[in-house]
Write a structure and sequence with these properties.
There is one protein chain. By secondary structure, the protein is of the alpha/beta class. It folds into two domains: 5-189, 3-Layer(aba) Sandwich (Rossmann fold), CATH 3.40.50; 193-386, Rossmann fold (3-Layer(aba) Sandwich). It is built from twelve helices and 24 strands. The strands form seven sheets. The chain has a six-stranded mixed sheet, sandwiched between helices. The model has no long low-confidence stretch (mean pLDDT 97). It comes from Oryza rufipogon (Brownbeard rice).
Length: 387
């Protein structure tokens, strides 16, 4: 049994990252997470929205992934949960008008259970009347509502600001996830050991949106130093990402994702200073597998038996690097040919969220497997979350 159980309050067009990153990060840490939406039941989906600034007066919106719910809202019993997470996006606008939602939030507040709300999620807190005389931050546009509701507004100088007031954790936007999730884990009574690790992400244009950001921020939230590099790009530059989803077609669909900001220069990176390598999937591995510098980097990590975690199409790079000979490996099913021709023993990803560890190598088939994927990498690195 998981040591803690929390509820994720969902709605259509909640922000894509703000739902999935805490959902999968907390599961990777051993926390049980139920995702529920008013008017929907377990097995239904919520559509999500990609919100990001692209130079206009406000953020842009495009379609995100379809987020699968695993609990029925009408069956939610607050007594079984230790905390509540509220994503932002556009969903809070209409959820804040739902009396069942407001009653649920008030019950968590009255019970002094940790509540973590990000971005526009604080509209629900205001409507529920639980921010009176409480320190609170949010996306800047939410300020008038919070002030009118009696909150002690905390101005955000950057999009990664978080504020804590008793059992209430609030954040401005998904940029704040590392601290936001860390603070929520602490509020749940959690502590992290073994987090003094340096981890490198091998990025490229049109890598899968979730497959870079979920593990990236999950590892940051544990206190790890995480860098993201891409060939021919430097720190501060961005990689466009792709949203790969399963929507009933014979293969996955693709939509534009967030733009992912790199933190270091590929040409200046000192691979020997990192404890592990993470390779996201998506379409980027197709061309990264042709880059000799990328191949050399991957071989270096494998030759030194440092942990390498690769997911989905990322195994195309492992195969090209010739490091799969004699290894056990899974991947997205369409990558089976690369894996087998690379000399590995193929492990069937059934179900699709299965992940495997073989020595220093962690492989996964697709982003639904992130909780297991991150957890297995944590085990190799000696990182533990205890409650």
């Amino acid at each position: 049994m998981a040591p803690k159980k929390v509820l994720l309050l969902c709605g259509d067009y909640m922000e894509d990252y703000e739902a999935m990153v805490p959902f999968q990060a907390l599961q990777a840490y051993g926390v049980s997470v139920d995702a529920a939406c008013p008017g929907k039941k377990a097995g239904d989906s919520c559509r999500t929205a990609v919100h990001q600034g692209i130079g206009h007066q406000t953020y842009a919106e495009s379609r995100g992934h379809n987020f699968a719910l695993n609990a029925s809202f009408d069956e939610v019993n607050i007594n079984v949960y230790d905390g509540l997470v509220i994503p932002g996006g556009r969903a809070p606008e209409y959820l804040a008008m739902d009396e069942k939602v407001l009653d649920l939030v008030r019950k968590f507040s009255d019970a002094k259970k940790p509540i973590a709300s990000v971005c526009h999620g604080q509209l629900i807190l205001a409507a529920a009347g639980v921010v009176q005389n409480r320190k609170c931050t949010a996306y800047p546009a939410v300020k008038p509502v919070l002030v009118a509701a009696g909150a002690k507004w905390e101005e955000a100088d950057t999009m990664d600001k978080c504020t804590v007031d008793g059992n209430l954790v609030t954040a401005v936007a998904y940029d704040a996830h590392p601290e936001f999730i860390s603070l929520f884990v602490k509020a749940l009574g959690g502590s992290v050991t073994g987090s003094n690790k340096r981890i490198l992400f091998l990025c490229g244009d049109y890598m899968e949106d979730y497959e870079v950001m979920v593990p990236f921020q999950s590892l940051q939230a544990l206190g790890c130093h995480v860098d993201a590099v891409c060939p021919d790009k430097g720190a501060g530059e961005k990689c466009p990402t792709a949203i790969h989803d399963f929507e009933g077609d014979q293969t996955y669909s693709e939509k534009p994702g967030h733009d992912f900001a790199l933190t270091a220069s590929f040409d200046n990176v000192d691979a020997s200073s990192y404890d592990a390598l993470v390779i996201p999937g998506g379409r980027a591995p197709e061309y990264l597998a042709l880059n000799d510098k990328v191949i050399s980097l991957v071989k270096g990590f494998m030759d030194k038996a440092k942990p390498v975690a690769s997911i989905c199409h990322g195994q195309q790079i492992l195969s090209a690097a010739g490091v799969l000979q004699g290894r056990k490996c899974t991947a997205y099913p369409a990558v089976k040919l690369n894996v087998v021709l690379g000399g590995a023993t193929w492990l069937e990803p059934n179900p699709i969220d299965r992940c495997f560890t073989d020595g220093n190598l962690v492989t996964g088939a697709a982003w639904p497997g992130h909780p297991e994927f991150i957890s297995q990498l944590m085990a190799l690195l000696g990182i533990k979350v205890s409650f």
